[in-house]
Amino acid sequence: MPVPSRPLPRVGAPARIKHFGGGSEAGTVVAVAEEGRRLRVRGEDGLEQEFELSPKTARFTAVGEPHGPRLELIG
Q1: Which helix (H) or strand (E) holds 42?
Q2: Is there a contact between 67 and 59 (Cβ–Cβ < 8 Å)?
């Protein structure tokens, strides 16, 4: 059986929110929707953001912010 090449999104999973310009912060996945293609993540500051999987780049990007934060799941 094939093993995923990267962590699958799940509630409670640790993540890193990478901000445009180089900064980053720790986050936690609080909701998973659309079969793992849309996530809600709570950052260190307690604020929640939504991310969606880009079909073009296969990376999670902030919903409605094409040059905004990116999300990296930590496995």
Answers
A1: strand 38-43
A2: no
pLDDT single digits (tens) 14-29 = 999 999 888 999 999 9
Structural domain including 19 reads 14-73
DSSP 63: T
Residue 2 lies in a domain: no
Instruction: Read off the pLDDT of residues 30-66 as tens digits, 9 standing for 90 and up.
Output: 999 999 999 999 999 999 999 999 988 889 999 988 7
Nearest to 53 by CA among 71, 36, 37: 37
Q: Say if CB 29 and CB 45 are below 8 A apart.
A: no
Distance of CA 4 to the CA centre of its chain: 16
